[in-house]
Amino acid sequence: MKKYIEKIGVVVSDKMDKTRVVMVEFMTQHPLYKKTIRKRRKFMAHDEDNATKVGDIVRIIQTRPLSRHKRWKILEILGRKEDILEKVKKEGEPSGTTENNASSG
To answer: Where are the domains of the chain?
Structure first.
């Protein structure tokens, strides 16, 4: 039984038809200095229904070559950009009044 590689990333481009560019971010350690480094990699993924938009969080899975650069397929949408922004907006609002309470003087 084959093990398929899955990754989670953010859609950074949706300008092509049925193709999305997904950026996957991961942490690694420098071999000599042992500092933790954040690395990013972009993958071209197939999106049959053009369902995703820029900013969506998706799970991609490795597949057979579909074109010159596409070897990944979007498996599922984990989060929509609008839903995430709405959630952050609700959490960021202070309870009570929304005006600034800046002191003058």
So the answer is: 6-92
